[in-house]
C-alpha cells in the first residue's frame, strides 16, 4: 500500500483538534453552560419527541448508565425534558426544551458557517473527490461498529475477546469483580459454558471464572479483537 496510514491518521487527528478548538470558542461565545459532549447529546436528541433513553444510548453508542448521568445533568440545566411512558413505566422519553432547541439551532448554524468558511476556496472537483473518499471511509467505519458498541459480556460469542468499559451492579458485585482484578479496560475472553445459568470468562493471566449469568450481565464491554 502506497498511502502512508500514519499520515492519514495525523491529518484526521489534526483536523478534529482544530475543529473542536473552534467549536469550543463558539461555545464560550454562545452557550457557555454546555460541554462538547452535552451539545452532541442535544444534537442526537434533535427534534424527536418519542426517543427513549435506551434508543438514545444506542444512537450515540454509550451505556445506559452513562446516558442517564448525562441526561440528568442536561435536565438540571434546563435543556432536556424527561417523561415516563403512561403505557410502559419502564420507558423514559427524552426531548428538548425550548432552551435545548435554541442550543441545537445555534450549534447547527455554527456548523453551516464553519463548513462554508473552510471550503470556500477549495475547487469544486477537489471537494467532490474529498466527499466521495470520505464516504468510503464512513462506510468502512459503519461496518466496524460491532467493535465499538458496548454490550453486556453475555451478548458476545464464545471465543470473543472483550475489553470491559463499565461494571454495573451492587457494591458487593463490583467488589467481587475488583477482587479478581476485573476493572475498566480489563481484557476477558468468553468461554463455552454447558450450563445456561452460568457464564465462563478467562482473564489474560489464564484464570478462569465461572459466574452466575445474572452477575455476568453487569460486565459491559466492547470487542477487543
From TrEMBL:
The keyword Membrane is annotated on this UniProt entry: no
Q: Which UniProt keywords apply?
A: DNA-binding, Transcription, Transcription regulation
Domain HTH marR-type span(s) in chain numbering: 1-139
Q: PROSITE patterns given for it?
A: HTH_MARR_2
> Known SMART domains for this protein?
HTH_MARR (SM00347)
Pfam families linked to this entry: MarR
Q: Name one GO molecular function term.
A: DNA-binding transcription factor activity
Record flagged with keyword DNA-binding? yes
This chain belongs to the protein called: Transcriptional regulator, MarR family
Which organism's genome codes for this protein? Fusobacterium periodonticum 1_1_41FAA
